[in-house]
Amino acid sequence: MSVRTLPLLFLNLGGEMLYILDQRLRAQNIPGDKARKVLNDIISTMFNRKFMEELFKPQELYSKKALRTVYERLAHASIMKLNQASMDKLYDLMTMAFKYQVLLCPRPKDVLLVTFNHLDTIKGFIQDSPTILQQVDETFRQLTEIYGGLSAGEFQLIRQTLLIFFQDLHIRRECFWKHILEFCTWAK
Fold this sequence. Notes:
Layout: H1 6-27, H2 32-46, H3 49-55, H4 64-75, H5 84-104, H6 110-125, H7 130-147, H8 152-166, H9 173-182
Helix pairs in contact: 1-2, 1-5, 1-6, 5-8, 6-7
Protein name: Organic solute carrier partner 1
InterPro entries: OSCP1
């Protein structure tokens, strides 16, 4: 198991979470200022400087339960509230989407490119907040610094660690597409 996997897992799942939430906010015609606040609050919490410092320290992956709890707290870091069924669907979509992306990577180092794509997308969600943008840019810099010099073998170990993490997470394709179509009931 690689002790360098956790930041990649966290950032990619977080990117998927933000993408899904953005899509749901748009689909439900949530006013732009409220949608921006939801996304900015979550991104600001996700890229908290102290949290990122801890995240980038070499360490084993969090347990599946602990990681899910982190995302539940992230999702509720804003004015938006999700009920348990919606959170279950959100987490299923996040994990299945990133698992699929990892499986599609022809080279192990491509996991880093997937992460960069997620960070670019996250930066696109940020509006009217240079402080939050700076937090994401700092994370981008840390990723480049830490992962830029890793060998192909180290990336293979990271990819293998991710696949081991995902191996027990199953959702039938029919359920996956059903989740995509009916995701998320917003609590009032």
